[in-house]
Amino acid sequence: MKSLHLIAALAAAAFSVLALGSLPAKADAARIKDIASLQAGRDNQLIGYGLVVGLQGTGDSLRSSPFTDQSMRAMLQNLGISTQGGQSNAKNLAAVMVTANLPPFASPGSRIDVTVSSLGDATSLRGGTLVMTSLTGADGQIYAVAQGAVIVSGFSAQGDAATLNEGVTTAGRVPNGAIIERELPSHFKDAVNLVLQLRNPDFSTAVRMADAVNAFAGRRYGGPIAEARDSQEVVILKPKVTDLTRLMAEVENLIVETDTPAKVVINERTGTIVIGADVRVSRVAVSYGTLTVQVTETPQVVQPEPFSRGVTAVEPQTDIMAMKEGGPVAILEGPNLRTLVAGLNNIGVKPDGIIAILQGIKSAGALQAELVLQ
């Protein structure tokens, strides 16, 4: 009897292991604030034109950049300084474009970062200071004013026979360099609903988000308030007993199981390969071989005989060697990401070879994912 009970227990354990192994992998969980953004809370782009001064001879040449000279004269005239006379040859200022993103619900007096980019033939903005620059929006209104020291991450060193460049020296940032002067018109408090936009549109994630909000609303307000409009937008109606600010604070911390389509992203320039967790490969046979041709030039110098009238000549000599490497045919199958990566590594090819293999598998119809080439 004891042996029968032991056999039954082992069979039940084996059945549970098989059942667990057949279950699908659990989706990744994330907060709503991490996977969606508020439609009414979008950023707005600002742009302006200004001057960077205080450069150590790395600014615009005023003859090649006449707009820099005009801007300098206009600035000095606004400061009450006469600019009549000959053309200046100063190289310590540069004309720049100033850009920034105005965050949603930004109030006057708060600060934002700005990006400064050279317009003329300046070689570096390092050590410069951005002079007061107005930043306007798409409607032509001034929303911020920028000024401050420009921070440049790149550097450049030049000698008589060599030049060393690291990064970009003609663009930089001014941290907290712009002060907001005008508030964007906002009707957030007067709206009757919240519209959440998924950063990665997906129907499954949108439906799960709506279900999570409705489950919370059923306990909190006594009924559903959310609806998935499409793969990107989820609309949440405002209950009468609360306001939108409190409703958004309650909703954005809800946990949702996200889902994304299977993708393989390939960047052929850098050799980068990103494989999603849901990528599957049907059973396929793969063989990868390369042909390498090596050409070696070893010219020979031929000298004439002594006291002869011959001339020294160079006799070319070329050696060509071809090497063909081919691996065995391998069976590749990827029921999960770990198995797929292990199978690709076992073939023993470099990233460029893996890119070619993945493209071939996609053409054969065995790659169950979207192949994105960058």
Walk me through this protein's architecture:
With 374 residues, the protein is an alpha+beta fold. The chain has 3 domains: 44-180, no CATH class; 187-257, Alpha-Beta Plaits (2-Layer Sandwich), CATH 3.30.70; 263-294 and 323-373, no CATH class. It has 7 helices and 24 strands. The protein has helices spanning 2-22, 32-35, 66-78, 203-220, 244-251, 337-347, 351-363, and strands at 29-31, 36-38, 44-53, 93-102, 111-118, 129-136, 142-149, 155-158, 163-166, 171-180, 193-198, 226-228, 233-237, 255-257, 263-267, 272-275, 280-286, 289-297, 300-302, 313-315, 318-326, 330-334, 367-368, 370-373. The strands form 8 sheets. Strands 3-4-5-10-7-6 form a 6-stranded antiparallel β-barrel. A 4-stranded antiparallel sheet has the order 2-11-13-12. Strand 4 and strand 5 (111-118) form a beta hairpin. It is flat and about 115 Å long.
